[in-house]
Queue: 4 jobs
Job 1
Amino acid sequence: MTTPETWTWLVARATGFTAYGLVTVAVALGLALSLRWQSPRWPRLINNELHQFLVILAGVFTVVHGLSVRIDPFTAFTWREVLVPGLSHYRPLWMAFGILAGYLGLALGLSTWLRPRIGFRTWRLVHYLTYLVWAFATVHGLGDGSDTRTGWATAVYGAATLLVLGLTVVRVAKVTTWPVLGRAAVTAGVGALGLAGVAWAHGGPLQPGWNAVANNGHGSGGRGLYAAPARTPTVRPAAWPTAAFSSPAAGTLSQAPSADGQGLVVTLSLRLLAAPGGRLVVRLDAAPTDDGGAVITGSTVTFGPPSNPTADHGAVQAVRGDRVTASVQDAAGNTWTVLVALTGSTGPDGVTGTVWVSPGTQTP
């Protein structure tokens, strides 16, 4: 694991969630302003200046998020993929929602700056696009984020949805110029959208194997240093396919002290849940460092079909957060690259993820 890869990945995740949180708070604060809510203790806590500051701050974090994604060596996005919706090689649809949210946010910022020229009525109409910015950002985060299936991320998206939709319902109820049936219809529509979003998230991004669906079966999104070289696959034993494949997986992740008591042994054991099946076992030997971290001192990898799960042997090439890249070789001498991305937990020591197998070797 190299430092640039680690930092760009962590910064992309952190800034993405920070920008989403700021957008959510900005939308909620805007709704509170429209409701004329004030605190008796801090009468000026909720004001336009704070609202505008949060919007600007969200824009800054969005820009940093986009830049960190652009320079991340794992996905190796081009500028076209980062700036033009639908051109991404990785989860193009869900990336497009994030790009559109960024452009709409920019348009809202410009409308605020131009409000003296375009007039309050026009600015107010444009300001309703804030809902689209928040909704697109939510869909982008759920559909594209690597942390979506973690408990804390699910809680963040759930709390944000309840906050924004709840305040929207309260705001609609306060519109006295609308007829009762009109307010009831809008409230029902907001509720229906919320339920549809929950159903989509539960049946899609929160399910194992979402990456294969979201990425149209095109693998993990790794490119550049992590892309298998273009070549004709060599012939494997009959129990295995002759081309790259991916499969959802489930198993255990455990750790124990090393034999000498000076280090740690981490063992990841996964069972492939889709054809052709099989089992993958990764063992990492780690030693503590002076700064409180750990360094990998050795590794072993066994991988094979259900009939012979230890047919292939190899070693770990790179570890980056919840992603492990390994190179294995079968009895015929063919080399294959195995990429594991852990996506969730099923309880104490139980994990789920996705395994991609590609012909050839990589040099992380």
Note: The chain has two domains: 3-207, 224-359.
Job 2
Amino acid sequence: MAPSDFVTHAVRVVVPASSANLGPGFDAMGLALSIHDEITAMITDDQGLRIHVEGEGAGDVPTDERHLVARAMNLGFMTMGKIPPGYVIKCRNAIPHGRGLGSSAAAIIGGLAVARELVVGGSELLSDTDLLNIALSMEGHPDNLSASLYGGFTVSWLDSPSTAGSVSMSLHPDVIPIVVVPPHPLATSMARGVLADQVLRSDATHNVARAGLLVHAISANPTYLFPATADALHQDARAQIYPETTELISLLRAQNIAAVVSGAGPAVLMLINKSDPTQLEALAGLLPSDWTSVAVPVDHEGVRRVEILG
């Protein structure tokens, strides 16, 4: 290792959770949420890797090179052509695992971002676009990745299976995201495995129209949030794997509340229009007592380096 290749101090990044799909925007739309994982890392002269995990996933996730943050860091180092002899990682996790809030995307984006920060001149070697496309090779779809990377409300697309683009937009100030998280997880692979390879033209047309309307509703006119979040492609197909989620969404939408499955589930995302007080009143008694519900501010910054205090 050339000593000048890496910074000599620890660096820390924070990366937000995300909710993907938002109803009709399957694999394309995402929303960054102010629930954050924190990754601190430092290059060492000792060979190998040491990982310490606190919070979500502690005791469950591997603490060797199989750890998702470490895998992303190694891929980032390889891409930049800068391979350290060893490094230490400390992960302080707040994003729930297996709930549909983008924990894996946050780990990948966070790992790549912290690797970039550890390399001298890393921002010149690895742009945000590069980072997104490297992450895409690990995750397969850009919706959560783009939200965790850029923050805000994102719309993403694939130019090829290995190349993604994304734009980030601000939300209308009256839009309040509320996340309702069940106590039990669901594997994303299970949720994706039940989806059909082909869909009806009428269902595709339905989602194209609603997705277009959702961009307008979430950024300019929240009165359209309810019709804009109606989905015909993936939520009904997955209904049998999370019946409690499906029932809750049906109850909420019967009250004209814009409720959707968060990502692959089983968490539920509600997009509330705060200028309509009847929406919050309608929630009374509808939310399961053993689920956690919280209004979560949108994260408008995405992944970023933060100062290490103390």
Note: The mean pLDDT is 93.
Job 3
Amino acid sequence: MNLRHTIVAVGLAVPLAACGGEPDLAAGNLPAVGRGPEVMTVLRLPREGGAARLYRVPTLEPSAWKLDDKLPPLQRTVGADPDQGFVFLLDKKRNVIALDLETRRLRPSVEQVRHATVGPDGALYAVDTASSVIRLVRRTPVRFRSKLQGSPTELHGTMGGALVARLAGDQPKMEILGSDRPPASFAVPAGRQALSLWGDLVAIAADSAVVIYETEGDSDGDRDRISIPVSGGAKAVMFSPSGHRIYVARASEGLLVIDRMSGQKLLEIDLPGPAIGLSGDLFGQWVLVRPASGDSAWVVDVGRGGFIGTVDVEWDDDLPAVVSPNTLLTRRGTRVVAVDLAAKGFPERGEVDGGAEDTWLPLTWHPPQEEGVPVNADSAALAAAADSAGKGASVYLQVSSSQNPTWAQELSQKLRAAGLPAAVLKPARSDEAYRVVLGPYATREQAEETGRGIGMPSFVVTSQDPPSQ
């Protein structure tokens, strides 16, 4: 597969935290468990053990859901399996346990784990104390034939079942392992990196350039690579949710937006000062830029293409995180608060007093038996459309949404150029997004089957209105 013509959906870089002198791999801030694209709840996990709690977004009202078992003292959250409804946790005895959201029980998973991560398909990857790698898929363990050759500073799973590790050392290296293939190892430049959501691309902010690698390919270490020159000192990099744009935080000259397919500069957004980090959301609406100093985030409205203000946050492994189209979750002192990014002055819409000491995980899930879970107007419109499916509604597969019609049309055109039946569903109201969809399909089953094969995050929607080409 040629890197210049690969269309992928991508996510956020996974940060690291130190533990006992050994790098430990922390969870990212993407939603973890899915029944759709909308974050409905956040899970509160006490680091010293005890009762897990669930809160509704955006009000942070407590849910009636309760875990029947008590959590042990935790090292960190690893990730989640969206199909099985499991949240994976690493306890302080270095064992991975699975929290079953449906049964509200804890299940033992893998013991004596040195490093662990969860891939985009929900598979658990665990590196034990002997550097052996185990991939756990639907509770079935698969042991890799090769061991990890070094101590990872970052660890990611891919949709193809491989493990991508960034290894520490004077010369950084990338190592890629698979259960049925020999490992590939190659040198990479120093700098912060981001992976695509499916793990098939890596972008590295290498000061004077952004360097992009494929992770799929031959095992001889020969990797397709693109280097995009960047001025101003690239400090961090992030893909847009649709994968067609790259954001670059720089020591000077503001936020740079690059077209990933052509490598051309699309936009420069002025910022109050030098930046060192980036965080985004699954909706493509907001980019949070971390300043070089201070406890705050600069908020960039992607639809408007500009910086709109500064919000007080405390940067950590799990927070701040944009957990719904307009809701930012962050710590403030001893509290965890929900902030409205769409309102002037970024007002608080909810809070949990005393929650700052615990770990928080956004979930696109809520207890099926619980009534009164908030649903936004966009989700309600989709539900109404689904109910009318038998009355002439068309079935589509949504792959992206954006407030910017030009961006939506650009992505649609690129998908069509790749041979996919892409189009844009126009919003019914001014506050709704432009949706990039594939289809139409005769049945929901046909749409779901396509979704499993395209290598992009997607979900089925229905509409009475024809899309624009």
Note: The chain has two domains: 3-363, 377-463.
Job 4
Amino acid sequence: MIMNVKIVALGDSTLVMGLTLAGLENTRIVDSKTFEETLNSVISDKSNGIVVIQEDFLKNIDWRLKRKLDNLAYPVIVPVPGVSGESTEGDDIKNLIKRALGFDLMAQQKEE
């Protein structure tokens, strides 16, 4: 069964404009005041499979939401750096895939 899932991006106007120009249709401009409410809404919608988040906003979120994100397997949360270009919060892609699938895909390939 192939699911039709959406990729959603949350960030400031610079990130959202860049991703929109790259072809991403589901983007939302947020600020520090609207981020948590918007994020809760987006992760509650099961049609969203990947949520790209500007990691600057993750620094000051409520600890309960942070814990929820850390334990969330679906949708996959992908933090990306803001305009500074410096990544501090994000997992590497291997860990994101492992969390989404429930096993280490790279380890499976090495065994074959």
Note: Strands lie at 6-11, 26-29, 48-54, 76-80.
